[in-house]
């Protein structure tokens, strides 16, 4: 059984903060589908380490004002290419995917061929979602992870001498 807040948040979700186990929560693009969320990850798509192999994940959803309104444990089901559920969900997910190259059919074929994971996150029946006023008081922010993408830059070039006053 899900709460009304979770049901409403699932209907409006476009981005969910998803964590697997003790891993960090990652902001992942998702598509609402029949009371659950559909997420694609893998080569050429968003990175979600461990999500495709996990049995459960913790999902944080925001409200209309952008703040956290619900935290819920969800069951993770990986959709298999060629299955009836894949044939229903994958084309709809491809249509919602922004900035993708190729047609919707080509995208679905690429997902199947490259091993991308299309997973369905469904609210766990034995878990009650956490909503206000029981939400965590802390911001949930963590220190940024180290990345090789950071570049050291030189000081700006000055054509004329800067005089001190």
Tell me about this structure.
This protein is of the alpha+beta class and 165 residues long. Helix content is 20%, strand content 28%. It contains three helices and eight strands; from the N terminus they run αββββββααββ. It starts with a helix and ends in a 34-residue tail after the last strand. The mean pLDDT is 86.
Q: What's the SSE blueprint?
A:
Layout lengths: L3 H9 L2 E5 L6 E4 L1 E3 L2 E6 L14 E7 L5 E12 L4 H13 L7 H11 L2 E7 L6 E2 L34
Antiparallel strand pairs: 1-2, 1-5, 3-4, 4-7, 5-6, 6-7, 6-8
Give a nutshell description of this structure.
By secondary structure, the protein is of the alpha+beta class.
The largest sheet, given as strand count, sense and whether it forms a barrel, is:
8 strands, antiparallel
In percent, how much strand structure appears in the residues? 25-35%
What best-fitting shape do the alpha-carbon axes yield? globular
Total count of strands: 8
First-to-last CA distance: 70 Å
Average pLDDT, all residues: 86
SSE string: HEEEEEEHHEE
Q: How much helicity do the residues have?
A: 10-25%
Radius of gyration: 20 Å
Number of helical runs? 3
Q: In terms of structural class, how would the helical and strand content be classed?
A: alpha+beta
Low-confidence stretches: none
